[in-house]
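Sequence, please.
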């Protein structure tokens, strides 16, 4: 039976958690941990619930960065696939030999992704690799070398994808020089953009500003459009703050790209597979990208797997790109089952979107520090400000909210400069969602009083 309420038996971090955090700090590279990291030491999971090493039980509104969309630990149907595959095949050099499992997954990805043209798939292990493959594919199969990416974007941390990433300076600091030829432009963030346009009131004006910025300022002054291979974008900026652009932005961007024969690269690493109520977030925007990069949720919260789906006019020539684990048989079959299961939960995401929208907008009405609420499906961002007029970021309150939520049994993750993201597993029930939303309100109340 699914458990109904969180249970905090000891204030986190408890004694066991403290010990592990201490050892972790000594032994493990700091990766993304910063002084604001939550002291959560996860031991196990059950559905939408996480248990820490001290026996605290939390409701999870993070899906471990939109990976565990089907919850914890392993969905029984995925467990069955894993066991079956362990009796058959886990790995057999998918990029050197052939196997039927990656063919089956590629066929599925081609059929469910937007666009009815011929496509191919490149398999890898992570989001950053799916983006690297997109960059290499574009340079390899077109004569163009430049890329456009958006300010606020997160596309990964290896040198190629990092050169596209423009989320936080700390992520880029000391890595200069990165890959040449990336030009950053403003993202149409309705709440916070360089022009001070209220993008909720005037979405067309905001969209026009961004399109004009690229078409005039970049293409007339910096690079000729016939040298630009691709425009990389996130349909909803994830690490940048769960920022949703105006509805018609991507159709306008697509027109611009088509005008100059520039490829559109849709980074769905954080949003794909059901998070927004559609398999791919770009489906909300009536736009067909030329390349789609995905990872995270594709592995069902069990296997690391990434994929780049692309128009087959683009392609690598033999030997031009490869890796060891791409096309991993077990990972592919887990991904295939994941797709089937996620499809079943899409109606749940659509149903719960209404609930989250209603409750989160109520929070905006009740708490002055809640500056902006935005989202789709089960992907919501709340941005905290010190003052609604000046929109000065309120990092302190955001951090307090994260900790207050944890103390009260709710796991949340920050994003952007002063935002939190709400991204529960898509298997969440209405009752569980309401429990989490109540704790969120308590956390905001405690953090802002
Ligand atoms: C939109 C997006 N692209 C790419 C990446 C990089 O993925 P990975 O961490 O698997 O390399 C991330 C990771 O958060 C992401 O959110």
């Amino acid at each position: 039976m699914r458990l109904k309420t969180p249970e905090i038996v000891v204030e986190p971090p408890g004694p066991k958690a403290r010990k592990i955090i201490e050892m972790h700090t000594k032994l493990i590279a700091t990766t993304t941990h910063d002084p604001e990291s939550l002291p959560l030491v996860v031991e196990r999971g059950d559905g939408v619930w996480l248990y820490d090493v001290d026996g605290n039980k939390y409701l999870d509104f993070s899906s471990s960065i939109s990976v565990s969309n089907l919850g914890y630990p392993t969905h029984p149907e995925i467990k069955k696939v894993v066991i079956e595959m362990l009796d058959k095949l886990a790995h057999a050099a998918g990029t050197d030999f052939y196997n039927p499992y990656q063919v089956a997954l590629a066929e599925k990805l081609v059929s469910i992704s937007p666009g009815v043209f011929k496509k191919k798939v490149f398999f890898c292990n992570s989001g950053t690799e799916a983006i690297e493959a997109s960059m290499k594919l574009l340079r390899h199969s077109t004569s163009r070398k430049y890329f456009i990416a958006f300010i606020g974007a997160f596309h990964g941390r290896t040198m190629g994808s990092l050169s596209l990433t423009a989320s936080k300076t700390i992520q880029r600091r000391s890595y200069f020089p990165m890959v040449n030829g990336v030009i950053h432009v403003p993202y149409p963030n309705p709440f916070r953009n360089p022009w001070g346009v209220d993008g909720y009131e005037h979405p067309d004006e905001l969209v026009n500003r961004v399109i004009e910025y690229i078409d005039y300022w970049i293409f007339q002054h910096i690079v000729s459009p016939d040298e630009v291979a691709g425009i990389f974008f996130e349909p909803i900026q994830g690490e940048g703050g769960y920022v949703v652009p105006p509805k018609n932005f991507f159709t306008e961007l697509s027109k611009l790209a088509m005008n100059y024969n520039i490829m559109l690269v849709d980074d769905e690493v954080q949003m794909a597979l059901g998070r927004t109520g559609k398999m791919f977030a770009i489906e909300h925007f009536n736009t067909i990208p030329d390349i789609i990069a995905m990872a995270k949720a594709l592995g069902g919260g069990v296997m690391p797997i990434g994929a780049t789906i692309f128009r087959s006019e683009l392609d690598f020539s033999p030997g031009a790109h490869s890796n060891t684990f791409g096309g991993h048989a077990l990972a592919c079959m887990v991904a295939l089952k994941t797709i089937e299961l996620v499809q079943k939960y899409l109606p749940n995401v659509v149903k719960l979107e209404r609930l989250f929208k209603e409750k989160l907008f109520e929070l905006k009405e009740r708490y002055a520090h809640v500056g902006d609420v935005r989202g789709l499906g089960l992907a919501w961002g709340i941005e905290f400000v010190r003052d609604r007029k000046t929109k000065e970021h309120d990092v302190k309150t955001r951090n307090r909210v994260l900790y207050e939520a944890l103390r009260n049994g709710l796991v949340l993750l920050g994003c952007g400069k002063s935002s939190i993201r709400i991204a529960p597993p898509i298997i969440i029930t209405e009752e569980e969602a309401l429990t989490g939303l109540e704790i969120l309100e308590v956390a905001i109340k405690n953090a802002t009083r």
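Residues 65, 126-128, 131, 154-156, 234, 238-239, 267, 269-270, 295 surround pyridoxal-5'-phosphate (CB under 6 Å).
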